[in-house]
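Severity: low
Component: inverse-folding endpoint
Summary: output formatting inconsistent between runs
Steps to reproduce: submit the following structure tokens with default settings.
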């Protein structure tokens, strides 16, 4: 039996009526502002080709590790969810069966941010008026499938319907950005820009590092045989990305450790890497040096620098070997910032030309290290609650631990960090509601006045992200 559901207009607000009343006013003041998405993982090909999404499973389940990691944790093999295997071994191809498995286990997502996002998607994007379950799975599948074949649900039409002002993708150093070029040359007015993420070229002990260096050399037009040529290649690619509209770079690192090597020291490590002989200690030093180099380059070319540290990537080696990276097995690490960022901040943290946005998966560092650092160094800003903490309680904890020490104006608003295109408005709406509720509590306790709260929620929703990313 299906049960009707509607999204409550006061969802996520405090049950105290005084706070809830203020939160309503604050939320209403920003709910229709354009979406600025400065960091995410949407495939630009979707918007370049503007082809209909294939089906509900391909759109919602298969690309979204937030969904299939939880299903996997409950014993559902990734093969049964249609996740492609690297060796081409058989996986489920019947997407209706995949959807049925998803619906059979939809109850697992209750109380999670994924559940909140999915309910918003079903209700607001697809107009579904009943909760997904085993019995109605195929009926809901057919409703979504039918809508996906209409012009109203083409990617560019949804982009405009979602009121997205700008969408930033994440792209490797050797990427030729052909789909971004296709978008630019199409005449479509949607703004989709790349972000320069050179992780594959910087992580010298990665399995495919040598292949990435060869690809980098090919796109630059010269062989990369030493560290100096490597730096030249990185600088040239940054310039190309900027010419294609990029405003930012991003570094995904295990540790935010920063340390300057001499060119000679860096080249010794680089030569070891070319021979496949680099050690983990050398890789750590090389990454620390490259963070210093990226900060230097950002001062010279004005690209905003982002650091995403503290993830033990591909923790589940069975899944990594069979299905590859980004399959929900990246686990947070305890992370230290005060000492690790010391060298970079003392070299560049006082320079007004640098914007350094730092993220964390280690919430304990918000109040102990990151807020005090961002509350002092002009160049440093705090990225929003990220990944596992991109949630109702996670966003609330972020605001509680950061605001008193750094203020909201040393943060950069919100980014959705999503691969699942239809979840973008759901994620931004959730963030706007959490901000409204947090500020409403401050007003109710007479810590800030209503006019200040209205200004602050507008900043958190729109102004800070535009300013920080120079949009």
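Observed output (run 2 of 3):
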């Amino acid at each position: 039996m299906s049960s009707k559901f509607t999204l409550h207009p006061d969802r996520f607000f405090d049950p105290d009526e005084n706070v809830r009343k203020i939160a309503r006013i604050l939320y209403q003041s920003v709910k229709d502002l354009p979406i600025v998405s400065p960091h995410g993982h949407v495939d630009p090909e979707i918007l370049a080709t503007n082809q209909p999404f294939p089906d509900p499973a391909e759109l919602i389940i298969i690309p979204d590790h937030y969904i299939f990691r939880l299903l996997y944790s409950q014993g559902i093999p990734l093969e049964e969810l249609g996740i492609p295997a690297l060796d081409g071994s058989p996986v489920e191809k019947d997407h209706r069966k995949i959807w049925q498995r998803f619906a059979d286990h939809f109850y697992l997502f209750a109380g999670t941010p994924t559940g909140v996002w999915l309910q918003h998607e079903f209700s607001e994007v697809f107009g579904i008026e009943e909760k997904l379950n085993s019995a109605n799975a195929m009926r809901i599948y057919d409703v979504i499938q039918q809508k996906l074949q209409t012009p109203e649900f083409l990617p560019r039409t949804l982009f405009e319907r979602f009121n997205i002002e700008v969408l930033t993708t994440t792209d490797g150093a050797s990427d030729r950005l052909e789909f971004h070029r296709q978008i630019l040359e199409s005449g479509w007015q949607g703004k989709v820009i790349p972000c320069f993420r050179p992780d594959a070229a910087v992580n010298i002990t990665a399995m495919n590092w040598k292949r990435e260096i060869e690809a980098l050399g090919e796109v630059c037009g010269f062989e990369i045989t030493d560290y100096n040529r490597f730096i030249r290649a990185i600088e040239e690619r940054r310039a190309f990305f900027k010419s294609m509209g990029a405003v930012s770079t991003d570094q995904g690192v295990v540790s935010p450790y920063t340390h300057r090597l001499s060119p000679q020291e860096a080249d010794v490590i680089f030569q070891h890497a070319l021979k496949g002989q680099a050690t983990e200690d050398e890789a750590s030093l090389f990454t620390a040096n490259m963070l210093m180099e990226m900060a230097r380059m950002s001062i010279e070319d004005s690209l905003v620098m982002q650091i995403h540290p503290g993830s033990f990537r591909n923790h589940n080696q069975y899944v990594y070997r069979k299905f590859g990276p980004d399959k929900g097995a990246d686990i947070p690490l305890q992370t230290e910032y005060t000492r690790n960022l010391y060298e970079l901040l003392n070299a560049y943290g006082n320079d007004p030309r640098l914007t350094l946005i730092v993220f964390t998966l280690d919430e304990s560092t918000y109040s102990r290290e990151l807020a005090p650092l961002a509350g002092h160094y002009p160049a440093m800003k705090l990225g929003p609650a990220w990944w596992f903490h991109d949630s109702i309680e996670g966003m609330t904890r972020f605001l509680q631990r950061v605001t008193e020490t750094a203020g909201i104006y040393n943060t950069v608003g919100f980014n959705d960090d999503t691969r699942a295109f239809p979840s973008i408005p759901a994620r931004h709406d959730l963030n706007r509601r959490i901000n409204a509720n947090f500020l409403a509590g401050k007003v109710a306790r007479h810590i800030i006045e209503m006019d200040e709260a209205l200004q602050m929620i507008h900043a958190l929703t729109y102004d800070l992200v535009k300013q920080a990313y120079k949009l």
